[in-house]
Amino acid sequence: MDGQLNPSDFVGMSFWIISAAMVAATFFFWVERDRAVGKWKTSLTVAAMVTGIAAIHYFYMRGVWADTGTSPLVFRYVDWLLTVPLQIVEFYLILAAIAVVGASLFWRLMIASVVMLVAGYLGEVGTFNVWGAFVVGMAAWIYIIYEIFIGEASKINAESGTEASKTCFNALRLIVTVGWAIYPLGYVLGYAGAGSPEALNIIYNLADFLNKIAFGVVIWAAATSSSATETA
Ligand SMILES: *C/C=C(C)/C=C/C=C(C)/C=C/C1=C(C)CCCC1(C)C
Predict the structure, then answer these.
(1) Whose CA is nearest to atom 19 of ligand 1?
(2) How far apart are CA 74 and CA 72, in angstroms?
(3) 229 CA to middle of ligand 1, Å?
(4) Distance 2 CA to ligand 1 centre (A)
(5) Which 3 state secondary structure label does DSSP give 135?
(6) Global pTM?
(7) Distance 152 CA to ligand 1 centre (A)
(8) Tens place of pLDDT for every residue, the chain, 232 residues?
């Protein structure tokens, strides 16, 4: 292969289109930061960091796919290891804006997200049994869901949240539950039976598009809503 993207290669084209969307989203969050009030400004900065980091990785991953026709596995996980913890930081920032939040909650969420990703990586590269690693990754994800629906994070949101912060928190936890569920689906379709790198990559790509951009849009909506002044 000559490194040129074939327009009929829909997986390759999805890398391309999402690169453009990530760049556009980064500019959007960055510029809109001016309209946000108080502590919400930092949240928009972090949203722009997430899509910005993803944009760089998407440009590169598109090249790997076009050149080799194989999954850009290492760069995918480097991207996730940078951006998923940043999204965890977002959750924490929203809670920290409304209440005094212990650092242990932050670390529990952070460690769970890293365990989830490291397990997935070791399963995908074949260091661990692919399904054993999957179970470990699922358990870590389910722990995060527990924390934001039932655990301490959910209690802080319910007790101290303002209208804007609650709407934002509730939308973000929906993304972490429903939006993030697309990833294990991609993993299963990528490795069950004969396995399919096409299915794996197209599903991961769509999931990133949704979860990184929608995540930022939810924060943007809260940051620029009139009630955001409550937490300024
Ligand atoms: C911007 C990137 C994001 C939000 C990536 C999220 C990735 C996941 C939620 C991955 C989840 C996985 C499991 C729950 C089981 C093991 C396999 C993974 C790593 C794909």
Answers:
(1) 120
(2) 6
(3) 34
(4) 31
(5) helix
(6) 0.93
(7) 22
(8) 566 888 899 999 999 999 999 999 999 999 999 999 888 899 999 999 999 999 999 999 999 999 999 999 999 999 999 999 999 998 888 888 878 888 898 999 999 999 999 999 999 999 999 999 999 999 999 999 999 999 998 999 899 888 888 999 999 999 999 999 999 999 999 999 989 999 999 999 999 999 999 999 999 999 998 555 554 4
